[in-house]
Structures are given as C-alpha cells and as structure tokens.
Design brief:
With 355 residues, this protein is α+β, with helices and mostly antiparallel strands. The chain folds into three domains: 2-68, Rossmann fold (3-Layer(aba) Sandwich); 96-154, ATP-grasp fold, A domain (Dna Ligase, domain 1); 160-353, D-amino Acid Aminotransferase, Chain A, domain 1, CATH 3.30.470. Helix content is 26%, strand content 28%. Strand 10 (180-185) and strand 11 (188-194) form a beta hairpin. The relative contact order is 0.12.
Length: 355
Amino acid sequence: MKKVWVLGAGQLGAMLRHAGMPLDIDVTPVALDSQQAPAVSSDDIITPEIEHWPDSPATRALASHPNFVNRPVFGRLADRLSQKTLMDTLGLATAPWLPVEAATTSDELYRTISDRVLLKRRIGGYDGKGQHWLRQSEQGDIPADWRGAAIAESAIDFDEEVSLVGMRDRSGQSSFYPLALNLHTSGILAASIAPLARLAPLQAQAESMLGALLDELDYVGVMAMECFRVGDRLLINELAPRVHNSGHWTQAGASVSQFESHLRAICNLPLVTPATRGITVMINLLGIERDDRWLAIPEAELYWYGKEVRPGRKLGHLNLCAPSTAAMQAALLRLQPLLPTSYIEVLDWVNRNLP
C-alpha cells in the first residue's frame, strides 16, 4: 500500500482520501495547525491541498520531507507577484498588471493599467477575499497596508470565465480535461458546466498555455488554470497547483476524476486522458443546510463536507450528470424547489448555457 500525506485536512484532502481507496493508496490528510508531527516514512509521498500553509510541527515535518512532490513550485505560485512574472516570462496572456510597491500611487495605476484596478494580496486570498477595487471615478487610493503586499490588475470586460484542469506525470507526459464554463457570485464559484462543444475551439489554446506552465515548472500532478474568455482569446486569471473546485465535475462526468489523476501522477501510476460522460453540472452548496431530498434525484451525486454551516461557506457540492440537455433540464427542474431562492439565478445561468 502506498502512503500519501496531504498537507491540509479540508474537503480537498478528504476527496483525495476517497479517491485513493480503490487504488489501495492510503491517503492521510493532516490539519495545518496540528502540534504533532506525523510519523512519515522515508518512502511516503507528500502533497498539499493548499498553496501556502502556517508554520506548525505538522507542516514542518511534511514540507521538509524529500518526497514532497513539487516542493519548489509552491513558493513561486503561492505569491501572485512571482506567479504573474512567470506567466510574463513564458509569454502567456494575462490581464495588464503591476506590483504595488511602497512608492506606487493610484494615479500611476490608473495611467498605466486602467481606470478600474483590482488589488490582490500577493499571499492568500481566495473566494473573493484579499481583493480591493480602485476606481478613478471614485478617486480611490491605495490603502497603506496594501503597499508592498499586493499586485494591481486591470479590470477585464470578459465574455465568460472558463477553467482547464491538466495533469503531468513524472516522465513529462501531460493530458487534460475538457474546458469547464464557470459562474462566480461574489467571487465564489457557484457552478460549472462541462464539457461544452462550443468551448472546444478554445481547447488547444488552453492546453498550450497550461502545458507550457507544467513543463516549465517540471510539475507532477494536477494543476488548474482559471481564464477569462475575451472573444476567441484566453487570458489567464490565476493558477492553482493542486486539485481545484472547478474540477469537481470530473467526479461524476469523467472516467477518472481529477483526484484520482493527481494520485496516479504523484504515485507514478499510469495517467490516461479521461473520457467524459454526457454533460455534467457542478453546483456549490454555499451556506445552506443539507437536504437529503437531493439524493432522490437520479442524476445527482452529493458530496457533503461535514462542516459547520456558516453564511457563504462551501459546505458541499452536487454533481448532476445526464446524457442529454433534456435530461439535465428535467433534473434541474426537480432540484430548483430544493434549493434557496438565491439559487434561481444560478440555475437560470446553467439552463441558458446548456447545449
């Protein structure tokens, strides 16, 4: 039995653990704040569920292990400054940006980038956190505590948000899932749809971009790339060197999930290009109580994270997989009365974008 330790004990670690069971891989997530160093053997493998972590006895023991896969990558991608610099070096398209330094002024950002600027914390920040908008029309200025700790990006009037999940093995061979179409509300992923035939013309462009990053970093495992679609051009928004929320659809909609693909890659097992099954819709369950009536919908698979319910918190997700648009519409019709009214907008978006 192979042994894999996961830096982090959230829902991603739990889903990696679940994916390891059929392969006889013992996956053990470890809480980042654990004060006890795990007993790691010399041939065990380490992987994280998050790009950066606090200093604790557990994280020191795991992060210093020689079999911590991709160890040099996380420092480069966890910091948005070095992440953006890497993409510029490779000639990959992103939103215009600048580092926010001690002497940077808002007028300089408005003049150089755009009259609408999004500040992002260099370290941390996800699901809409760690962001601050500046608008020239509002005479916004850079808060003092963001200087030297952020990057500034131009606002992008994009057509859609898409993401690509790819994986690379230890021999340097890569494969990819189909592009997913994503909806964010208040900075949090609300829903994904994949595959969509109308996104197929963008697949080669996306694979070229993510493939260049995987090769440059000599990366092993699954990585996600979030992009803005502007016409027929993709701009990279952010990278996640790990399994990712926008790849959860693969649990129901692909022959091999992103979680199994990641474990295969880091454990040196064969990777395959996954086959897709019909069309899949992933819906994040945010800040709502569990409802077992969801399980009565034949097309639905529930992943409940077992967390305390809090407003806006990711508590689980539903994957609905159907062989046709008509079958998916019927499943969504059954689901709608079982969700809060705030989900009407999300389900309407899904219905509008079904093939």
